Amino acid sequence: MVRGIAVTGLAVLLITNILEMNGINFFKVDVKGMMVFDNFGLLFNAIAFASTLVFFLLSGRDIEKVGMHVADYCALIFFVLCGVAIASSFNTLLMLFLGIEIISIPLYILTGADKRNLKSNEASLKYFLMGCFSTGLMLMGITLIYGVKGSFNMDVIGMGNGELTPMLAAGLLLLLFSMAFKVSAAPFHFWTPDVYDGAPTVFTSFMATVVKAAGFIAFIRLFKNSLGSMQSEWQLMVAIITAATLFIGNITAVFQQSVKRMLAYSSIAQAGFMMFAIVALNETAFEGLIFYAAAYSLATIGIFAILIKMKDYTFEGFNGLAKHQPVLAATNTIFLLSLAGIPATAGFWAKFYMLAAAVRAGHVLWLVILGVLCAAISVYYYFRVIQAMYFKDGDAQEMDATPAFKGVLIGIAAVVVLLGIFPEWLIDKLYYFF
Amino acid sequence: MMPVLLIVIPLLSGLIAFLVKQEKSVKSWALLSSIVSLVISVMALTTKNDSWLHYNLPWLPELGSSFNVGLDGMGKVLCLLTGISFPVIFIATWNNSYRKPNNFFALMLLSQAGLMGVFVAMDALLFYFFWELALIPVYFLCSQWGGERRIPVTFKFFIYTFVGSLLMLVAIIFLYFQTPDKSFSIDSFYAVAQMSPGTQAWLFVLLFLAFAIKMPIFPFHTWQPDTYEQSPTAVTMVLSAVMVKMGVFGILRWLVPVLPTASFQFGDNPATLCVVGMLYASFVAMQQDDLKRLFAYSSIAHMGLMGLAIFVPSNMGMQGVMIQMFNHGINILGLWIVVELIERQMGTRKMSELGGLAQKAPVLGILLVVLALANVALPLTNAFIGEFLMFAGVFTSLASKYHYIFAVVGAISIILSAVYTFNMIQKVFFGNTNSLTAGARDIRLNEKLVLSALVVMIIAIGVYPKPLLEITQGAVDTLISKMMIKNP
């Protein structure tokens, strides 16, 4: 019953958000300029709500298996969505802080939801401690910027002649580092594998997709609106962070033996690709980031949904899946191809937009080549799963995959392929209403 | 409309083939579909109505990419090659039995759709799309139905080619931002203004790497012998007859006309690699015992010659490349069919274990000798026309200082190809039969038909190549003019 309420609630959320995008609103709240509900933020909200809806449809039953307090878990996920909505539409640094915190705190609890599992408790504590530390850094950065500019408001901060005083530089760096922590960019990514691996897989699915995407939207909003004028100063640093993230994420994912940990490192690698948008900060980058959020979330939620049903999380556990569960194997293949960036899937356009944004920005062509080589490396670990499923033999497993589950998976796979052939359907929503 | 049909027919019949579980039915279905595609590609060759050869549909207006497909002389010849190859492959391997035949034939048809798409795409993004889409079915085909070491070998093949394609994507995106009207269409790419030599240089490297890996050109060839060996023979036929032509086609359509100055300036480097590759591959081919690996290395040598003729360009040489793309496809198809027949009957591909087959299978022997002579480019065979034009072109070209050296050293590989080819014939077909080959039978009717058809084509084109040369003349002239316009 909790699931039903959750799904209904999300549907209502999604519909009201779409109505809001068309200009129809039910309430008028005077936010005093602290939040601005532009198409960029609203479209991302729609994507986040839709992804969470898919998440509930696919993995709702598995949430019930985590522990006793199912209603609490679902409520916490909704609180996270509240934070997501704030983080996508903020116009003042205080709202950014609020949004990021409201996202993070329920996640600390969700990570430790499996109370009898030592790894879950460890992951939760690790996440909590490191998260608090990075929040402290963020606050310090905000304070320093306030000290220089005299206001928390992003428009005020964005004004100015782009001159970088030491205090401003310090504040900027602290903000950059704390945001990089939240989106698990190297070298601030060390918490990610342990936390994602220790958390119950259902919640890893949510964390690795919606939360990471929300982090990136907040990241790009922050840098676009306020610090864009100083881009020449920090572009190289962000580019180096991107390069490190791509490299570390892809290389370590190659050596993993557990699919769950591989997906954790692969989410770091994908974060590296999304960082391209921060490096570039142009039109193509914004369009691309929205698209990447959608493509990546859908594909990853799909893969995790299938992973949760498996008993054995290693690559060998997937052996022979194509013979026993052809629908699951086929949809899993489409999701993996999308993550790898093969054309005719949404993931290709996501990577394409990121590369195009970086090429358009100009000075970071070395980063583009590195990104492309890392994308080729990522093919290795994604295809290992495909190979296990199709080309190796394994025993049949008891999997409780209901027809409804398979139906939703087929629907998501169809959306991934359709977006792969007609990407502009989604991108246009940034500019035109329905 | 025709280019669209060439893509859509194999695509739809491939998707439908997934559902046809009966082995006989799906084989007939695949054959029927490939014959329809052949008919359309022949019609495209002979039609006078130019509007049927182009089709433009808006696809991604914001981005500047449209579903723009068209057939010029070069495209027609390559679509004809693809159109001929698939029915030939299906007929020749008719008696093979595959596990899950519906998947096998569906994937073969899907790969045909991808290959046709590459040859007709007039839009850079569409070209990239089809370039990758041709690869995916081949990956599944090789991994599912291949030899013992198929999984790691196909993986290497896929990743190697994928790296090349991604580098090409970067170059395409960069060129897109340089076009005057922010579009991916081929005319916009040709209209890109002169860029600085440094920029042209690294763009040339990126694009060249992608095509060099595909052709393959030494030293990017290491994926090829293993992949050809481990794939099921039907897939090897597709790979070597049609897919490697994607590399040559890519250079002719998307590299040389777009970056003519860089191609002229740096032309010697790829040419050197090609010549080295020709010699290297020929020497290695002489050492081979396995028939599949022998012809794999022989292919590298032939493709090397095509690369040489492109980068030491001349009108004659380009004509030679165009016609040789078709010729090599036909010849190598015939040779792979023979390998397949031998392997199926004898159970081995090793030359040391075979011998005296001509005594037991005379028809096969006759057909093979003609095919082998074509491989060596003896006059009266189609390959002679192509190779003569290419060598004459390289020898008389004004584009490079070293053209004499390239031509002479390259010609040595012809002699070497005679060595390993005749060695192969001698070991496998002539001499005495041994215990294994004593029980050989001659080939069946369908196999005779297919091989005879190929032999007829070889001799016909070898004696009267004019129709084929005329079709590609237009494309050659356009290409040469683009290369010379921006050159001093």
- Based on CA atoms alone, the radius of gyration of chain B comes out at 21 Å
The major pleated sheet of chain B works out as: 2 strands, antiparallel
Overall geometry of chain A: globular
Which class best fits the helix and strand makeup of chain A?
A: mainly alpha
How many β strands of chain B by DSSP?
Answer: 2
Question: What series of H and E elements makes up the topology of chain B?
Answer: HHEEHHHHHHHHHHHHHHHHHH
Can you give me a brief rundown of this structure?
By secondary structure, chain A is mainly α. Chain A has 18 helices and no strands.
Q: Which features characterize this protein?
A:
heterodimer; A: 434 residues; mainly alpha; 0% strand; B: 488 residues; 20 helices; 2 strands
What topology does this entry show?
The complex is a heterodimer of chains A (434) and B (488).
Chain A: H1 2-21, H2 39-64, H3 70-88, H4 93-111, H5 118-149, H6 154-158, H7 166-182, H8 191-198, H9 201-225, H10 231-254, H11 259-280, H12 283-309, H13 321-324, H14 326-340, H15 346-361, H16 365-391, H17 403-421, H18 424-428
Helix pairs in contact in A: 1-2, 2-3, 2-9, 2-12, 3-4, 3-9, 4-5, 4-9, 5-7, 5-8, 7-9, 8-9, 8-11, 9-11, 9-12, 10-11, 10-16, 11-12, 11-15, 11-16, 12-14, 12-15, 12-17, 14-16, 14-17, 15-17
Chain B: H1 2-17, H2 23-46, E1 54-60, E2 65-70, H3 73-92, H4 101-120, H5 124-145, H6 150-178, H7 186-190, H8 197-214, H9 223-230, H10 233-255, H11 260-266, H12 268-286, H13 291-311, H14 315-346, H15 357-360, H16 362-376, H17 382-396, H18 403-428, H19 445-463, H20 466-485
Helix pairs in contact in B: 1-2, 1-4, 2-3, 2-4, 3-4, 3-10, 3-14, 3-20, 4-5, 4-10, 5-6, 5-10, 6-8, 6-9, 8-10, 8-11, 9-13, 10-13, 10-14, 12-13, 12-18, 13-14, 13-17, 13-18, 14-16, 14-17, 14-19, 14-20, 16-18, 16-19, 17-18, 17-19
